[in-house]
């Protein structure tokens, strides 16, 4: 009796395939301006300054900065009343968050490639490795890259 040997299917259970749609939703709100985010290969993802998503993110940062300044001026003109503080804090918080995600998107392609290399090296140890061992391996690699 001859048994057919079927090759293992390529696992697409990696960071990029699990987060690409979440990042696309974030791009609608002006965060994570990355190009080619829906491609299956993580090597085609890039950050470009002339990408439409980047221009939209810069517009969002500019608009939230203007709203923040306008709400601060409004608060100053009304003798710093406490109920006007919420719009200023909201705009300031939004501006900081969008800038933080913009900075993260600049280094996201490199971070994604390093994380995929880490995931591929963990797969060499087999699929039955428990979560504690995976955590220790990833933590060791992360600390090692920070120290170097």
UniProtKB/TrEMBL annotation:
InterPro entries per the UniProt record, alphabetical: Gustatory_rcpt (IPR009318)
Protein's membrane topology: Multi-pass membrane protein
Pfam families in alphabetical order: Trehalose_recp
Protein localization: Cell membrane
GO biological process terms on file: sensory perception of sweet taste
Keywords: Cell membrane, Membrane, Receptor, Transmembrane, Transmembrane helix
Parts of the chain that traverse the membrane: 21-38, 50-72, 84-104
Gene Ontology annotations for the cellular component aspect, listed alphabetically: plasma membrane
Molecular function in Gene Ontology: taste receptor activity
Domain of life assignment: Eukaryota
Sequence similarity: Belongs to the insect chemoreceptor superfamily. Gustatory receptor (GR) family. Gr5a subfamily.
Name of the protein in question: Gustatory receptor for sugar taste 64b-like
Organism in which the protein naturally occurs: Diabrotica virgifera virgifera
Gene that this polypeptide is encoded by: LOC114332455
């Amino acid at each position: 009796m001859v048994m057919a040997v079927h090759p293992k299917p390529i696992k697409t259970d990696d960071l990029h395939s699990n987060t690409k749609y979440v990042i696309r939703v974030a791009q609608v709100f002006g965060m994570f301006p990355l190009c080619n985010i829906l491609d299956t290969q993580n090597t085609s993802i890039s950050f470009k300054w002339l990408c439409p998503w980047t221009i939209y993110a810069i517009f969002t940062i500019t608009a939230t900065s203007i709203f923040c300044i306008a709400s601060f001026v409004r608060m100053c003109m009304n003798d710093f009343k406490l109920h006007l503080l919420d719009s200023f804090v909201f705009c300031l918080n939004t501006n900081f968050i969008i800038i933080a995600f913009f900075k993260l998107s600049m280094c996201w392609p490199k971070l994604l490639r390093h994380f995929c290399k880490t995931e591929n090296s963990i797969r060499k140890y087999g699929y039955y490795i428990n979560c504690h061992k995976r955590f220790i391996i990833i933590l060791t690699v992360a600390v090692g890259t920070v120290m170097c």
